[in-house]
Every structure is written in structure tokens, then in C-alpha cells.
Amino acid sequence: VNGWTLAGTTFLASAVEAVEALTIVMAVGVARSWSVALRGTIAALIVLALIVAIFGPLLRFIPIDQLKLVVGIVLTLFGLAWLRKAILRYSGRKALKSEEAAYQRELSSLRSVEDVQADRVAMVTAFKSVLLEGLEVAIIVVTFGAASTLALEWSLVGAVGAVLLVALVGIAIKRPVSRVPENTMKFVVGIMLTSFGTFWTGEGLGIAWIGADLSLLILAAFYLAVSAILIAAARVPQAVRA
Amino acid sequence: MSIAAIWEFLAGDSKRGPLAVLVAIVVAVVLLRSGVASPIVAAAFAGTIALGLAASVFEPQA
Questions:
Q1: Which pTM does this prediction carry?
Q2: DSSP letters along A18-56, please?
Q3: Taking the CA atoms of chain A, what radius of gyration do you get in angstroms?
Q4: pLDDT computed for residue A240 by the predictor
Q5: C-alpha span between A52 and A204 (Å, rounded)
Q6: Does A93 contact B32 at a Cβ distance shorter than 8 Å?
Q7: Which of A18, A184, B28, B46 could serve as A166's disulfide partner, Cβ 3.0–4.6 Å?
């Protein structure tokens, strides 16, 4: 599979999760202190890096057919969950996520904590948010990188690039990054993960895809068409939403 | 961390989506063992997953 496709998918997936984590880290920084927010973030990033460093190379000891099957199933499950959420949001059945609202909620919750334990609670909050948002990305990076060292490197480039970009934007604007098209990114990642997952699970089962890697494009177009139909079919009328 | 929490982390809060993945795998294995041509199995496999996505979109939300 093309390295740019791997990097592009992990970039988008990481950007979505990094935006969500940044919201909480920002709230911790503003409500308590930036050193506490930074300590929590760095601790979580070290844990995530360890997960990728340990499980990335380890997966290559599994026979390729079994590996494709396991990786394919995990990616399909992730992809369907992301895609479902994005379709529900596009159709109005689920509220669009507001980073600004999440930021305000976290801010008032952190400010209500008593002084004695406030720093500890704030650090754990930053740690948990970065770890939980990053865990899904770490699993995606590891599974995408399971094919070869080069694949792992491409996946890492995408993920690290997104995290750095979101962090830099956050530092520059000193506010949660609320203007990114989060749902569209989630939708695109959902389509890509489901397509990769279907392709690899199929290969693991012994299906010979027509056109080999090119069938990934056909799968992506197919899931895109199905999702467009589902968004239209599930759409809640504006009057009902109001 | 409980198995239920790990499962929810992997598959989200839908039951129908993961069930469709399981059904798609079973269907593909049965078809392949029956000697059905790969393109037909591939279509059935992706189609079943797409049906699962549709079912999960209309699944009552918790």
C-alpha cells in the first residue's frame, strides 16, 4: 500500500484526536498551570511512544495471513465506529462536537477542585485525555505499520506531523482549535479505515481482490456512496432538530 | 479495565456493526470453501459490512 496513503490516513486520524486532546490540555493550562499541563501531556506521550515502539515491531512476528486478518478486523471495527458517528452527526441525529463547549466545561470543572489536590487532578486530567485520545491513534499506527518497517515509518510520519501541527496551532492561537472540520475529517478517516480493514480482512481470509491494491479505491468509493445514501436516509428535518 | 470497556473502545457503542463484520467473515469463509469465485465473495463480503453500517446508523442510541 502506498506510503502517502498510510501517512495521510494516520495524519487525519491523529489530527482529529489531537484537536480533542488539545482542548483538555488547554483547559488544564489555563485553569491551573502550563507546567502541570505539559507534565501530564509528556507522560502520556511517552506511554504512547512505548506502545508503538513495543507492539509495532512485535506484530511482525505473527504470520502475515493471520496478521492481515487481525489487523483488518480491528481497522474495520474502528472504521465502522468512526463512520457511524460521522453519519449520525451529518444527518442531525447526533449533535456536532463543539470544542469550545468542551473547553468551557473542563475549565469550570477544574476550577471547582479544591486547591490542595488541584495540581494532581489537573495533571491526571491532561494525562488521561492525551492517553485516551492517543491510544486509538497508536493502535492505528501500529496496525498500519505491521506490514513493514517502512509502513511503520510512514504511519508515524503522518501521526507525529498531525500532533505537531495541532500543537503549534494551539500555541499560536492560545485557544482550543474549534474551526477544523472535525466531522468531515472523522468521516474521511472512517471511509479509509473501513476500506483498509475490509481489504486486509478479505486478504487474510483468502479473497483475491481484483486489481490488487487498486481495489482499495473501489472499496473507498463504495463506502462513500453507501455513506452518502445513509446520510440522506437518516437525515432529521431542520424543524424537528430545532 | 473490563472486557466490556476494551470492546467498547474497539467497536464503539454499536452492536450491529461488529455483528455484521462477524457475519461477513462467516459468509466469506463459507463461500470460499464452496468454491465460489473470489470477485463474488469480495462483493458479498463488502456488501455485508455495508449492510452492517446501515443497520448501525439506525440502531437506537444509548
A1: 0.83
A2: HHHHHHHHHHHHHHT-HHHHHHHHHHHHHHHHHHHHHHH
A3: 19
A4: 61
A5: 23
A6: no
A7: A18
